[in-house]
Amino acid sequence: MSLRIDAVYYMVFCDEIQSQVLTDKIVAQALNIDSIAIDNDIERAAFALKAMSHPIRLKILCAIGEHELSVQDIVEQVGTTQSNVSQHLAKLREKDILMSRRDANRIYYRVNDERTLRLIEMMREVFCSAKN
User: Fold this and answer.
1) Which candidate, 48, 105, 109, 111, has a CA 20 to 30 Å from the CA of 57?
2) Could you tell me the pTM of the whole model?
């Protein structure tokens, strides 16, 4: 009788182990999907940070912030030539950090993505304030 009970307990134990292994596999697959999504977000963040990683581009982004500014306004705030600002604006637009619109003979720029805008706002608080 004892042997039969031990066999039953063993079968129940094996079923529990199999169930746990299956659960662990399902969780691992779900985590892998989340990991892929997180990896995509991290790649996008690294891509954006790399595109912003020039002093003039950071200055441009600090100047624009949540506003929409014309190229001339940006030139005045950044303090360099229009040609230099235009080159950096083109890079930021090419990397989808900024978007532009034309109004007659003026081009206006603003931040393209809400997440990037939040990042820029944090950078402005830390690095672009008059207190620093």
Assistant:
1) 105
2) 0.66
